[in-house]
Amino acid sequence: MGATPLIPASDDRAAIYKARDASPVLSALGWDAAWEPQFAPFHSRELVPGRVARVDGSSVLAITASTTLPAFLRGSLTVPAVGDWAALSQIDNSLFMVEALLPRRSALSRARSHGERQPAEEQCLAANVDVVFIVQAANNLNARRLEREVAQVRECAIDAVVVLTKVDLVSGDRSASAEAEEAVPGHQVLVVNGITGEGTDSVRALVPPGRTAALLGASGVGKSTLANRLMGADVMATSSVREADQRGRHTTTARHLHLLPGGGSLIDTPGIRAVGLLSDAGIEETFPDIAELAQACRFRDCSHTSEPDCGVLGAVETESLDDGRLESYRKLGREARYVARKDDPVARDAERRRWKHIHKALRLRERLEK
Question: Is residue 169 domain-shared with residue 249, that is, in the same domain?
Fold first, then answer.
């Protein structure tokens, strides 16, 4: 990892500490007065704050007020995520040491399963993120995946904005934006053209100085092209679409944090094949229409599968709710409950009681109908 100075490095440590207190670089990256109490214990040790821009095994690339340099982790320190804030000691003009990590304000995470009997592992994709741009290609929109991606972001309590790319490859009068808005009602949907740059300004406006955005999406949807447009330079490698199916190719292999021109920061992530949920916290926000319909269900814990007087099933019967959307809702709910049961015996018992109640209601219904 070579050094890439943002501001010329200084041999004068006093200048470095002074730069920390009034650094436009750190402010643009998101450092504010609220971080100071977290960093207070490290002032006496003459450490400086820096943000993790890349992680390579046991070393990272850190951006400080005066420079961008590689840094190694002290002892058994937990490996940070891109976007973490760290307390750094400077070994020399070309190397830092990560002495400690500051508590995260937010974490864009996903669940990684290690088998039936092992609890799901939380993998942090990016730390201290304010908004996530969920990127999909307009010529290959996957509504079910979009629902899953929004649920993942919302369970992390982070704002989610849908960005549709490759609109230049959409033919006819098909409206990908309308389809996306229908899949995730209540969430902003932006459309950009990677070739002309049209629509990029609307995305850039959501990342003012001090705010951090992350890109999330499958391989080949145009995240790197969008990142280059936002950066105003070709900082990320891109590939042309495949002629056979007009889909993009995988190019990004690691997560990177970039300081945007004019302030703000952007975290570009590799394409993610599987988006695993850690809980059901974001599902209702992704499916507000189903949550509203559920208010009419007879049973408060209705699973919307076969219970009598189910408001959701009634909407499917009248075709006011798409059956595929309901199945996606069920699938995400089952997945979230499965993860919870693996991690929590109390949740396992609650799930057994829930299904016992449902089966009892079904048996009662069968007797009444005879």
Answer: yes
Residue 3 lies in a domain: no
223 in a structural domain: yes
Q: Are 74 and 97 in contact (CB under 8 A)?
A: yes
Structural domain for 234, as ranges: 107-268
Check whether 82 has a pLDDT greater than 60: yes
pTM for the full model? Answer: 0.78
Would residue 4 count as lying in a domain?
A: no
Residue type, position 249, single letter? R
- How many other β-carbons are positioned within 10 Å of the β-carbon of residue 159? 16
pLDDT per residue as tens digits for the range 182-196:
999 999 999 998 888
Q: Using one digit for the tens of pLDDT, what is the confidence trace for 269-300?
A: 886 766 778 778 888 889 999 999 999 998 88
Q: CA 174, CA 362: separation in Å to the nearest integer?
A: 43
State whether 19 and 79 are in the same domain.
Answer: yes
pLDDT band for position 351 (cuts 50, 70, 90): low
DSSP line for 162-186 = EEEE-GGG--TT--HHHHHHHHSTT
As to burial, measured by CB atoms within 10 angstroms (0-12 exposed, 13-18 middle, 19+ buried), residue 318 is: exposed
Chain centre distance of CA 354: 31
Indicate the DSSP class of residue 54: E
What secondary structure does DSSP assign to 75-134, as a single string? Answer: TTPPPP-TT-EEEEEEEETTEEEEEEEPPPS-EEEEEE---SSSPPEEEEEEES-SEEEE
1 lies in a domain? Answer: no
Residue at a domain's end among 67, 101, 135: 101
For residues 18 and 121, which has the higher predicted lDDT (pLDDT)?
121
Q: Say which DSSP state 10 is in.
A: -
Let me know whether 129 and 259 are in one domain.
yes
